[in-house]
Write a structure and sequence with these properties.
Elements lengths: L10 E6 L3 E5 L12 E5 L2 E7 L5 E6 L12 H7 L11 H7 L4 H4 L2 E3 L5 H4 L9 E4 L3 H7 L20 E3 L20 E3 L2 E6 L6 E5 L8 E8 L2 E5 L7 H4 L8 E2 L5 E2 L5 H11 L15 E5 L4 H6 L10
Parallel strand pairs: 5-6, 6-7, 7-8, 13-16
Antiparallel strand pairs: 1-4, 2-3, 4-5, 9-10, 10-11, 11-12, 12-13, 14-15
């Protein structure tokens, strides 16, 4: 949406129900109850953009859980057995239709934060959308990220290759892209060293957010005068990590070493250190007093407290 003075372009953001899964707290946060498990959402988001010239575009960020678990390969299904119970409906497509949009014809772009099973959803629902993924994602789908994430838990045929654009490598990334790359360039913005101004008008920034999985990206969205929304994907799985109340859990990897849910725990911590300033009110990451709402994909409390902001509602 265009602001009143037509100098800035804002977007409209709506949350989407996209399934739920159950996480054991001990694998995600420090000082956890070893028996506590919580059923949490895997949030998706609709972003509606209207350029200064009046051209409308729609983005869906993340697709959540598949509505049919048999759509996952057998090794994925075995992994998902450890995340039961799951809630499969409404899925992302259901949520869009509830608000009056048809996934097959009304969504221009699908941007995936990463390609773990609980974010990949059902890409075939979006049969005319362009898919945008972080650098190294296509290689990851084919080869995995062993030893923590073997190739068997990824689907190499997940994305439509003719409609998938992979963001170019960031200088610090070692992954090699094997798909059609976008012509976007990474630039620093708001304290982040690598962002892509997706529409070129300052309304939607893709943020390189390494650590959790190769190709992990977040979105920073301009929703109003000095108001932004940061969609953090799986930068962490519990907002108490962002606020400093908890830390990233480490646990035995089965081979006598410690690991976390991230492929690179220290890199994930570094990403969090760049997100944390956004929590301050006003945020020091911008050159003027600015409010930023930070939302991570599995925030159970956010979902429960913000039902009115799910599509057709808005943030």
């Amino acid at each position: 949406m265009t602001s009143a003075d037509s100098k800035e372009v804002y977007v409209v953001v709506s949350a989407l129900e996209a399934g739920q899964l159950t996480l054991p707290e001990r694998l995600f946060v420090t000082d956890a109850d070893p028996e506590k498990r919580a059923t949490v959402p895997s949030l998706s988001f609709l972003i509606q953009h209207c350029s200064a010239e009046g051209q409308e575009k729609t983005i869906v960020f993340d697709l959540g859980v598949k509505r049919d678990l048999t759509g996952y390969a057998e090794p994925q299904q075995l992994h998902i057995q450890n995340r039961q119970p799951t809630v499969l409906r409404p899925d992302c497509a259901d949520s869009l239709r509830k608000g009056g949009l048809e996934p097959a014809k009304d969504i221009d772009y699908v941007i995936l934060s990463h390609v773990h099973w609980d974010h990949e959803g059902t890409p075939s629902d979006f049969s005319n959308s362009q898919f945008v993924v972080g650098s190294g994602t296509v290689h990851l789908l084919e080869h995995g990220a062993p030893p923590h994430y073997p190739k068997e838990i990824f689907d190499p045929a997940l994305l439509p290759r003719d409609r998938t654009q992979e963001l170019p490598p960031v200088e610090s990334n070692s992954s090699t892209a094997h798909s059609k790359q976008t012509d976007h360039k990474w630039e620093p913005f708001a304290g982040f060293p690598a962002t892509v101004d997706f529409f070129g008008d300052g309304s939607v920034y893709i943020v390189d957010s390494p650590g959790h999985l190769f190709g992990h990206v977040n979105l920073l969205l301009h929703v109003g005068d000095r108001k932004w929304v940061y969609l953090g994907g799986d930068c962490c799985h519990d907002p108490r990590i962002l606020t400093g109340e908890k830390d990233i859990a480490l646990y035995d990897d089965g081979h006598g070493n410690l690991r976390s849910v991230h492929v690179d725990t220290e890199l994930a911590r570094d990403t969090l250190s760049k997100i944390e300033p956004l929590l301050k009110k006003p945020s020091p990451s911008f050159g003027e007093p600015t409010e930023v709402e930070v939302i991570v994909a599995h925030d159970k409390n956010w979902r429960e407290q913000n039902q009115h902001r799910f599509f057709p509602g808005r943030l």
